[in-house]
Amino acid sequence: MGLSSDVIERLPHVEGILNYLAPMAGKPMNLAYDPPPGVPRSSGIPEPHRMTIYDARPVAGRLSLDGEGLAVVEHRSSVKDFYDEDELRRVYYPEAERLVAEVTGAAGCWCSTTRSAVVSWVASIGRRERLASRLPASTTTTP
After folding, report:
1. Rounded to two decimals, what is the model's pTM?
2. In CA terms, which of 83, 130, 133, 135 is 20 to 30 Å from 108?
3. Cα angle at 109 between 108 and 110, to 5 degrees?
4. Using an 8 Å Cβ cutoff, are 73 and 65 in contact?
């Protein structure tokens, strides 16, 4: 069961800027260490897009990975201090990887090159096809 556009338009929302990677000839690259002088840390150039960002929580029960390609999952982290890098590595990353694997049935891979880590995964569950999406490079919301 898909959500109609009028249901989506009535959801609470904010306007925001999503920075996607601009199209490029080669593969994007981001070094997880300080490069030598003259070598860029990243080959990507952000391309900002103004988007409406909807709060899906009111319709969370009607969303599924198979139907809409996304699902809303509530989870309370056991992390006490998100500024503690050791605690993030020791507790949060494994916790998030387990959650993604549990919800999708996928093997998880956690990318921690920035404080605001992004999880990426590939799932093939029963008749589900390989999941792939274009994730934003960063998110900035505006009032």
Report:
1. 0.50
2. 83
3. 120
4. no
